[in-house]
């Protein structure tokens, strides 16, 4: 009897959330469910969802729920979205095509940029910019109706976050990036930002050799970030 009641309450809540998503409620679509699915896909694009990536997504969902006009209902909706996305990714059926279409239908730039912002945070959360993550990010940016320059600036901001504490022996390994032992911390940080923007833009090039070179350089940049950024 108790179990039946719990199931009934759960179904009522699901129905209420779905009604809100269809526009039967008074709230303007926030695109939050689709943003969560994009973020989960981004985190899993390298084959593993790191705890730091999960923490970023959960934190975003909590902040979003708290700022909603009905925080309690939105919290339920976000929990359902997270659980559904995780189940889909574990089953290998998480597809982002429909999510991108739905976000473009909403068409509000602040919402689209919120999706880009969260994807950027997830990509940078584990301290490494994997080639698979960058390819997915490029796809998201090229599909959403957002400015590519603005989106890449957003990503570079997250990728370059942190304080650089260089060790001279470590710096010698990164001469291909233009980093030298004589450089100040500010100069090194500037180089890393510049090189990341340069090579991330080439990670989806039509030329296979250029894509492969970009992947190698991005791995080097990721290694430099992991070692030099604290």
Distinct helical segment count: 11
Which term fits the overall shape? elongated
CATH topology of the largest domain: TerB-like
Unreliable residue runs: 7-12, 19-28, 162-166
Query: What's the average pLDDT?
Result: 78
User: CATH top level of the largest domain?
Assistant: Mainly Alpha
Oligomer: single chain
Give the class from helix and strand content and strand pairing. mainly alpha
CATH architecture of the largest domain: Orthogonal Bundle
What's the Cα radius of gyration? 20 Å
Total count of domains: 2
Biggest sheet statistics: none
Describe the structure.
With 230 residues, the chain is mainly alpha-helical. The protein folds into 2 domains: 116 residues, TerB-like (Orthogonal Bundle); 71 residues, no CATH class. It is 71% helix and 0% strand. It is built from 11 helices and no strands. α2 packs antiparallel against α5 and α6 packs parallel to α8. The N and C termini lie far apart (54 Å). About 9% of the residues have low confidence.
What would the keywords be for this entry?
single chain; elongated; TerB-like; 0% strand; 230 residues; 2 domains; mainly alpha
What would you say about this model in short?
This protein is mainly α and 230 residues long. The chain is 71% helix and 0% strand.
Write the layout of secondary structure elements.
Elements (H helix, E strand, L loop, with lengths): L1 H21 L9 H13 L6 H17 L3 H20 L6 H10 L2 H17 L5 H13 L4 H12 L8 H4 L13 H16 L7 H21 L2
């Amino acid at each position: 009897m108790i179990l039946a009641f719990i199931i009934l309450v759960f179904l009522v809540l699901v129905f209420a959330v779905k009604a809100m998503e269809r526009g039967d409620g008074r709230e303007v679509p926030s695109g939050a469910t689709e943003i969560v699915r994009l973020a989960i896909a981004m985190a899993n694009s390298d084959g593993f969802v790191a705890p730091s990536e999960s923490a970023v997504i959960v934190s975003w969902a909590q902040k979003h729920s708290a700022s909603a006009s009905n925080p309690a209902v939105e919290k339920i909706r976000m929990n359902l979205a997270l659980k559904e996305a995780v189940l889909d990714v574990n089953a290998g059926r998480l597809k982002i095509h429909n999510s991108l279409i739905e976000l473009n239908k909403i068409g509000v730039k602040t919402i689209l940029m919120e999706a880009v912002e969260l994807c950027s945070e997830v990509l940078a959360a584990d301290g490494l910019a994997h080639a698979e993550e960058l390819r997915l990010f490029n796809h998201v940016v090229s599909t959403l109706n957002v400015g590519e320059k603005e989106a890449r600036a957003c990503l570079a901001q997250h990728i370059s976050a942190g304080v650089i504490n260089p060790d001279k022996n470590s710096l010698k390994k990164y001469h291909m990036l233009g980093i030298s032992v004589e450089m100040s911390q500010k100069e090194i940080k500037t180089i890393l930002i510049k090189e990341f923007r340069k090579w991330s833009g080439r990670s989806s090039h039509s030329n296979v050799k250029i894509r492969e070179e970009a992947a190698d350089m991005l791995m080097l940049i990721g290694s430099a970030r992991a070692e030099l950024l604290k």
